[in-house]
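Reading a protein record of the kind used here takes only a little practice. These numbers are not coordinates but entries in a learned vocabulary of local backbone shapes. Here is one such record, which you should read through line by line.
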Amino acid sequence: MTISTTVHAAALNAATTVDLLLAQGPSDGPVGPEFGKASPIGLFILVVLGVAVLALGWAFYRRFTRFRRRAMFAEAHGIDLFDEAAVDKAMEEAGVFDRRRKPFL
């Protein structure tokens, strides 16, 4: 063997070793049979967040529907939409005033 072949083989061996070391992930992380399993509290949190999103969407839909109905009534009768007292009075006289309890949201 010549010196250049030996140097080339040693450099190739060192490069392969470096590549193998870089390709491996850290081995000191959490491992074992319990790693990666979710706890029941995580499912509970997801369910609570889902219920909260649905409740907020339902509350928004109710408010938007009432607003749209009032806006259409005010426009049809030539009343300023932002004059709440006038719109309420006109809707009550027309018999379409919504007497249901107003939502807290």
